[in-house]
Amino acid sequence: MKQIAKIEAFELMDSRSNPTVGVRTTLSDGARGFALAPSGASTGQHEAHELRDQDNNRYGGKGVKTAVKNVTDIIAPALIKLGTVCQSAVDRTLLELDGTENKGKVGANAILATSLSVARAAAASYRMPLYRYLGGVNAQRLPTPMMNILNGGAHAANNIDIQEFMIIPAGASSFAEALRQCSEIYHALGSMLKSMGLTISVGDEGGYAPNLDSDETAIQIIVDAIEKAGYSTDEVKIALDAASSEWYENGVYHLPKRDVIYTVDEMINHWETLCRDYPIVSIEDGLAEDDWKGWTRLTERLGGQIQLVGDDLFVTNRARLKQGFEAAAGNAILVKPNQIGTLSETMEVVVMAKNRGYSAVISHRSGETEDTTIADLAVATNAGQIKTGAPCRSERVAKYNRLLVIESELRGQL
Length: 414
Ligand code: PGA
Ligand code: ZN
Prior knowledge:
Largest sheet: 9 strands, mixed
Strand order of the largest sheet: 4-15-14-13-12-11-7-6-5
Shape: globular
Number of strands: 15
Bound molecules: 2-phosphoglycolic acid, zinc ion
Strand content: 15-25%
Helix content: 40-55%
Distance between the termini: 31 Å
């Protein structure tokens, strides 16, 4: 039986210069796995708890020394004693050690980095790529990127309220082809913005972050960029992430940058109009995380037509997804490992969604690192879709590069 010999934890740095937890697991045969936790900005209220030190003398309170210490003092001895690298046994132990509903005691950042590093060490020990170890013979489908090329909301210092404007190269014949199309469109968009005298500086996820007149203008510019790059909107579609939990107050939606207020029905009408006028095929968090009644109405109106993704709504959590099934809310789930905290729970929620006919989109966070686990996870679960930002900023590009390598490996085997 393979055994965990050593677990080390480090306070490292994420792409927004905030500390994050990194964990290195060493097995008794010498195999090693290393993983880092990502971090969100527009976090859902129901996410697992990211443990930060709250010591204002360090990193503005965002240090993770406590989480690091929890890995070395609480997690490491228990997992070494466990005597196996079996992922479900490891993750069950992590849940028991924490014992809280939201992983607030040990910290979801400490738990996730450990859970992922154990899987990586096991894969290394079995001499398998991570996607193969996690997905077995079934792991074979490369995801289509939902690529965020224009940033707003909490991810950019511009005047745009919608957080993410994404392109989906739905007609591409391979992942490499999909990535090439997106990159060409990204460059076309950049040169268009430049010629309009607008900034080409980028937001947290690598998309451009210019000031524009309206959401419609942003979408129209993307349509123009698709065409300028030589593609049509039959081949390349548009997706939005409104991240509208950020706007919800007292039962209405207050878009802070434009200072506009929509009732729930006006918000739904707004999405319907945008879908009528533009090639939009997916809207994420079109309504807020606890607006269940609104979500049911939104799904009745648009669910037959487009993908409605629950991010803050479902927070990668099986109980929340079940609630979604019961309320007929949404038809897709965004899957972010750090929203729930363990690899096993993350993989289980993908299966649960698929069994019910919901689609699953594997996702990064706005605060990321060089860790590429989500690329392997997307292939392992055959999720079919991945959201990991623009083809810009190395923490985003690392995931795309990993998928390119996986695609060539799979080609070689088939
Ligand atoms: P976050 O944004 O990582 O800041 O939560 C990503 C998203 O909302 O999908
Ligand atoms: Zn989102």
